[in-house]
Amino acid sequence: MVKVNGFAQMVTEDADWAEYEIPYFLKKGKNLFTIFVQTKTGEREQEFIVTYEPVVKKRKTPPPLNGIVMFGQTNSDNILSTQEGNTKTSAAKNDLLLSAAYAFGLNEESAVSLNVVLKFDRHQNRSLVAEEVLFRQFSTEYRHKNLLGLDFNTGLGQSVISLKDANPTNPYKAGEFKEDVQSLFIYVGGKKRWGRTFSGNLKIQLDSQNKVKTDSEDGTLTLASLGAKMRWYDFRFLSSVDSRSTKFKDSSKDYQSTLIDAGATYSWTPWVFGFN
Hints:
With 276 residues, the chain is mostly beta strands.
């Protein structure tokens, strides 16, 4: 007689050796098997422990350096965004965006990155050269993929907006960009997943702004963003609330805005339908 974990197995008569296949789903960790054998001359019971550790698929480590290059063209019949009733200007402009980030991995779950963003435009109508803008941003970010269950990130940096100086007092500086707004910012954010169907995110950012030519727009800008995503079969639902408010030296220039966005998409291969 042969038993495995109390279940009798088929025994061939007069056999001195046997092999058995036992249907069993190994659990993670230690699995106990009790083998009982009884023959004409005696019986014996033996315990065996099989340890099972599932193979852990490690995520492919992304390259430390990432970059983005984007080139675009805008054609507008109101390139200067003038109010209704005023003369509109039709023109075209080109945009170039350069972005680079280098990440220093601290461990498998956390990293520090250095980020640079550079964006500028060029009007094809050179009479609009004074409307050209140069944007520069330098920042550093710390990210932890599992901090108290959150995908946590925080960072700080500086942004500079410069305008093309079309009529400088020094003719040798014609066509150069001149700083218009400087700002220092700090932010904190997090993302939380509940299973595979629902996730939420929150981000709060505080900017300290300095207007170069005037003090009236010096002050702080507060931004807050809250979003959620849910998946149900082939449907995906998205919603977000974005709020921003200012506190300038000249209170007449203060503003506050709230944007609420909601939408849904439905996948029906190869089509995707959606609305906002």
